[in-house]
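BUG: 3D viewer hangs when loading the predicted structure for this chain

Environment: internal workstation, default settings.
Expected: structure renders.
Actual: progress bar stalls at 90%.

Input used:
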Amino acid sequence: MNGERFYSSVEYILKEAANIVKKVDYEKIKLAADSILRSKQTFVYGVGRSGIVGKAFAMRLVQMGLKAYFIGESTTPIVEKGDSVVVISNTGETLSAIQTAEIVKRVGANSIVLTSEPESSLAKLAEILIILRTDGEINTDYAPLGTVFEDSALIVLDGMISELMERKGENEESMRGRHAIWV
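Structure tokens produced before the viewer hung:
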């Protein structure tokens, strides 16, 4: 055991995630950022590890001084017209994600979808569609169960945080003042 498998896996995940992120349509990132900044509230939804990525994004939005919630938490208010809702799903066929996007559409909120499947049921409900798709088959020995999608989604959403910070005039110091650990 010399770590060969570990280092090969890390290298593979980084390479695949970089390839996916390079193909992201920046115009969609700008539209998503515009939507979030216009909204009174931003909601985020995902299931499993996509949900964990979503929670990390919602946390950064709050640290930036925005009202943000993760759908499903007991203190989350209702989505209203004009709010933004970010839905994250690799397959775009997760039933609860589709149901969430249908509700978003019905109430007149803005849907921002991150998925790897541009023809999925979820993608068809998106106002702003951000595709995170690999060029080929994923080596599941190195990156099982959606790892590359989830890591790519985290990177893209963290990149969007930087974009939002610049637009809002936020920086490390201003955000630290809203960080639960530093209060």
